[in-house]
Amino acid sequence: MAPGGTSRKQTHGGQKSTPGGSGTNRGLDRREFLRRTGAAAASALAAPCIVPATVFGAAAPSNRIVMGCIGLGGMGTNNLMSFMANPDVQMVAVCDPEQGTNIYDHWYNKGGYLGRQPARDRVNAHYADQRAAGRFKGCAEYLDYRDLLAREDIDAVMIATPDHWHAVQAIHAARAGKHIYGEKPLSLTIAEGRAMVEAVRRHGVVFQTGTHHRSADKHMRFICELIRNGRIGELKRVRACVDPNNRTSAAGRWDAQPVPPTLDYAMWLGPAPWAPYHRDRTHYSFRFVWDHCGGQTTNLGVHVLDIVQWAMGTDRTGPVEVEDRGGVFPQDGLFSTATKVDFLLRYANGVEVTCQTSEPGTIHRFEGTEGWIETTWSNFTCHPASLRDTHIGPEEIHLYQSSDHKRNFLDCIKTGAEPICPVEIGHRSTSVCHLGNIAMKLQRRLRWDPDKERFLGDDQANCLLAKPLRAPWSL
Q1: Above 60 in pLDDT, residue 463?
Q2: Which of 465, 447, 402, 442 is nearest to 189 (CA)?
Q3: Would you tell me how many other CB atoms lie within 10 Å of the CB of residue 27?
Q4: What's the pLDDT tens digit per position in 335-371?
């Protein structure tokens, strides 16, 4: 049975979402959410959509994981297809405030359509290929993610919305009892990240952060094991490089644009401050607007610093100091995140980590008292060269092994085990990026308490640990 659950916001045809419409006119009041959860579940269960079990592969119904996807831009659509490639996944719902568009051609997109209707069509086409009749219409589409979360048949969700939505949607998903695959960077602020950790723990769901290089690049685990087992001696310094794929808008004046008829812009903004619509505020370019993301510091920096934290064994804590070394921010125009990243992290054990904008190539350089290791995303070099052939013995430190980040998430749902990048680790790896942004914004050195997650003696810096959410949204 694949319920084709219907709800007030569900669409199956050419229905348009209203630009600036009612998407954010109602907050998620706890009592109202629970009431709507029951109503939507009843509607879903009553829907007359009978689907043969063979449509969803060989997995027995009791062993299937029923999923919905929230956020169907470039990365979200890519994740959708990756999850459906697993025969024990049953994809039944997609959600996005964008009905469908091809106006933005990013490498994730490759010229195709993005949004909830193209995603629905991809799901239906995927399952239709597995049916003799060659037809399938079992995937529901939603404009409002709360209607998707209200379905009791859904076990897990993938969230790949803009960063300003991550915390609100993940916390609501945890409250609804859904397991969560959440794209990186985990949060928009450190306070939001901590709230996500607490919600996931409170409701006992599995959370996998999408920092997939822990799984995708096998040599990363090996070099982390080399460092953790002292193969380069005592670690002293690390250089982490951020690809300079930073965009800058035209200097000076920029004009608001009409909201496309396919986009519910009010819902897209959600908890972010109200601002006039411009194409470059949405789709991939949202990453360069401070209200929506921390720029490449958090977007690409979290991948790089996540591996640093793993190699150092500090991925459940953080540094004790962060210092600006010359970060640069735009002075005008639409884009407002750092165009040059340059900050220093100091850890309690004395290790110093610099994070800087650098041309593509070397990603990390780990320097110890007896050698060094340099990495790219596909390989590494080292001194002494014999490190490449080193064997990690059975009594030494062996790190979590995963060859597929999404498969690891699915397996952990079934076993109850902790995934390779759980919410706490995702939060800590994202936090070091936020710390760098704050230091660069304030242009000074800051002392940090990683246990209390507060700056020491600096009220101005502590004010940047959170951002207000636009009413009626709240955590």
Answers
A1: yes
A2: 465
A3: 16
A4: 999 999 999 999 999 999 999 999 888 999 999 999 9
Dihedral in degrees, nearest 10, Cα atoms 354, 359, 364, 367: -70
**Entry pTM:** 0.88
The β-bridge partners of 140 are 93
Q: What is the dihedral of CA 241, 246, 252, 255, to 10 degrees?
A: -150
List of residues 6+ apart from 373 with CB closer than 8 A: 223, 226, 227, 232, 364, 365, 366, 380, 381, 382, 387
CA torsion sign for 113, 119, 121, 124 is positive
Domain span holding position 168: 10-213
| CA 180 and chain centroid, separation | 10
Both 391 and 378 in a single domain? yes
Residues 206 and 303 in one domain: no
Supply the CATH number for residue 116's domain: 3.40.50.720
Tell me, yes or no, whether 93 and 164 share the same domain.
yes
Strands 454-455 and 445-449: antiparallel
280 contacts 335 by C-beta, under 8 angstroms: yes
Average pLDDT in the 157-174 region? 98
How many other C-beta atoms are found inside a 10 Å radius of the C-beta of residue 266?
Answer: 20
